[in-house]
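Hi, here's the filled form for the chain we discussed.

Project: internal
Contact: R.S.
Residues: 325
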Amino acid sequence: MKSFWIRTEDDKTVLEPRDVPSPTVAPGQLLVRVSAAGLNRGEMIVGSAMHSVEKIGGTEAAGEIEAVGEKVEGRRVGDRVMGRVLGRERGAFAEYALMQAHQAMPVPEHFSWEEAAAIPVSFLAAYDALVAYGRLREDQWMLVTGASSAVGVACVQTGKIIGAKVVGTSGSAEKLKALTGLGMDEGIATRSPDFADRVMELSGAGASLAVNCVGGSLFGECMSSLGFGGRLATVGYLDGVHHADIDLRRLHANRQVVFGISNSRVSEEARAETVAGFIRDILPALTEGRVRPHIDHVFPFDELPMAKAHLESNKQVGKIVVSLG
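And the returned structure, exactly as it came back:
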């Protein structure tokens, strides 16, 4: 089968096409014929948790079930599914991929394959950040830095499903305009740590939740944007800044919480719990058509290196997807 492997070359990642045997389904797994796969920036960063070994790239896919492993119930050949795929040796940048059965989610009938492939990683990360750990509630204020990223857009859309009020940051006025069209209440045009006063002005008492998709350069300003009992989720570090100072007196006095969102060390039981929660709490809004994933661009599978270049250009709003037709 066709596949693209991701490997490190000097200080960058490279996608390399290879012909390899199709994977064999094992107990508890599904073999999926991939129709579309999503790109995720973390996998392209040298030294990140998502890119630790040479492997078939891609962490999420949508397609039809080709084979069902033993001990799997409720799944049939031909079912339309979307989900995170098995990593390490087998990924989504291939004609066939493996999923743990508990990672497979039903594709809403009106969704294209490309829309389905845009859901698993970004929206599950948003679910963990906003619902499972962030405990965001209706009418609360949420701040999202780097809101035009795939996870940022998923956070904006998930926040609106919950009924929260969302303020996002971006260095591009054009991107902020697009985000407003997706439901964001307020936008702040900046790439600098200078937005806390504006967040306080908008919210009145500070954000209940801040989702930092940028990294350490904005950590302190995110903390300053929180109100009493506020929570700060760190999702990524696009700025390459992995360290930041923290005002322990402010954290202590305001009973604030700081947490990270990553799947690199999460158990299969915890992954299954997140998927079940997402299916229960958020998927109905997608199935009913109240929200659709925002796709910036779809590339043919053979043009995956071009899709990677577009991702690294930072020009996109939302998800970049490759289609296998």
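Let me know if anything looks off before we file it.
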